[in-house]
Amino acid sequence: MDTVAGNTVRASLATLRQFVRKPREKAEFCELCAASIAPAHQHLLELEQRRVACSCDACAILFGGNARQRYSRIPRDVRPLPGFVMDDQEWESLLIPINLAFFVHSTTAGRVIALYPSPGGAMESSLDLEYWNSIVARNPVLERFEPDVEALLVHRLASPPRYYRAPIDQCFRLVGILRTHWRGLSGGQEVWQEIDNFFLNLERAITGEPRA
Questions:
Q1: Quick check: 209 pLDDT over 90?
Q2: What's the chain's average pLDDT?
Q3: Count of domains in the chain?
Q4: Distance CA 86, CA 139 (A)
Q5: pLDDT at residue 106 in the model
Q6: For residue 39, with 0-12 CB atoms within 10 Å meaning exposed, 13-18 middle and 19 or more buried, which class applies?
Q7: Which pLDDT score is estimated for 65?
Q8: Does residue 185 share a domain with residue 96?
Q9: pLDDT tens digits, 152-197
């Protein structure tokens, strides 16, 4: 009897330890209809507030067109732009204070806006449209981006610089990483490691590899 009881206790403790090591994932819900959604789910952009909302597939389909609505469906694919052309002088003409930024055509503003991550969140930078238009002329792929929900994501911390056609939620995710992990004046080692991991996972998403 003691052996049977001991085995039962040991099995119960093993189960408990497994449960502690692997806590339940936080439940997520569609912000439009409150339906339960999987961890990998659709996102919508609330245009006026420039806010990303979680969505079930059914609600996301409602906002997949080009009609003017409160929300716009955010695409899920990240695409590299290996043939993108931007020299150092063109980059400097855009007056972005760091070597990370994203550019998106805002339908509410009626123009392309430039944003970059900072410890305080997404910061908007004044964009000289004359310089921007010359970049578009050399890279006509920019004219095919979906307004509001697709951005040119620029990663000039890499060598050579990397350019992506990226969903806007990924860009805001990068902003959140920098805002959350920045420490002191220089940011600290952790934030730069997290940024490296972000772009590593971005590249893996492109090639279909599992995330790190």
A1: no
A2: 86
A3: 2
A4: 9
A5: 93
A6: exposed
A7: 65
A8: yes
A9: 999 999 999 999 999 999 999 999 999 999 998 889 999 999 999 9
Residue span of the structural domain in which 54 resides: 14-73
User: Do both 129 and 87 map to the same domain?
Assistant: yes
Mean pLDDT value across residues 62-78: 83
61 and 88 share one domain: no
In-domain check, residue 100 = yes
- Collect all residues with Cβ–Cβ distance below 8 Å to 50 and sequence separation of at least 6: 106
CB 145 within 8 A of CB 135: no
Cα distance between residue 44 and residue 180, in whole Å: 23
For helices 188-207 and 168-181, angle between their N-to-C axes, nearest 10 degrees: 160
- Residue 47 CB: number of other CB atoms within 10 A? 18
Same domain assignment for residues 105 and 123? yes
Q: 89 and 180: one domain?
A: yes
H-run or E-run covering 191: helix 188-207
User: Looking at the structure, do residues 196 and 127 belong to the same domain, yes or no?
Assistant: yes
Contacts of 87 (CB under 8 A, 6+ apart): none
Distance CA 87, CA 89 (A): 6
For residue 61, which phi and psi values (nearest 5 degrees)? -60, -30
Task: Provide the 3-class DSSP secondary structure of residue 137.
Answer: helix
Instruction: Write out pLDDT tens, residues 13-45.
Output: 444 344 344 445 567 899 999 999 998 899 999
Q: Kindly report the pTM of this predicted structure.
A: 0.83
